[in-house]
Amino acid sequence: MSNVRARRGGSPGDSRRTGRAPRVHSTRPVPAGLRSSATSRPGARRGMRRSVRSTTATAPRRRPMVTGRAVLLGGLVLLLALTLAGPIRQYLAGQAELEQLAAEGRELDQRAVELGEQLERQSDPVYAQRQARERLTYVLPGDRLVVVVDGEAVEGDAGTLASAGPDEQLPWYEGLMQSLADADG
């Protein structure tokens, strides 16, 4: 209790209580040159002592290049990046897969349209008849068939070709030998 009174301006030996309020200093501002170096705040006094000591030291104290806060912040940023790397990679892979599936869907839609058009063409009897004539060499009764073999036009009945020479029946081995002799030249 005596320390409190000493700070407020009372004497340490004065232990009696009076009914009056303690003496309060004036609250008006004091010019900077008139301020005393002793202040009533303990933290301010300690700070002044440190500043006096630091000015008297031979080497000034250097600040570290990397502070603890910077290391902590860097660690948190790294942790956040590692935490988000997997989901972001999955998101981007999903987007690429969606684009690929959308392209495949468009191709399949185009193919379905083409097949629908082909189905409509094939349902037409004139188209079916023309394809039978071209691909299968079908002829209608009464039509003449002309087939070009080796650049020469050969005429005949529908479905028959004129034979090129006498039709001799040779045994299979003689036919094989003859074809080898013809191929050899």
From TrEMBL:
Segments for region (Disordered): 1-63
Keyword annotations from UniProtKB, A to Z: Cell cycle, Cell division, Membrane, Transmembrane, Transmembrane helix
Protein's GO biological process: cell division
Biased composition (Basic residues): 43-52
ATP-binding is among the record's keywords: no
Transmembrane segment boundaries: 70-88
Stored Pfam families: DivIC
Compositional bias per record (Low complexity), positions renumbered to this chain: 53-63
Keyword Repeat set for record: no
InterPro entries noted in UniProt: FtsL/DivIC (IPR007060)
Protein name: Cell division protein FtsB
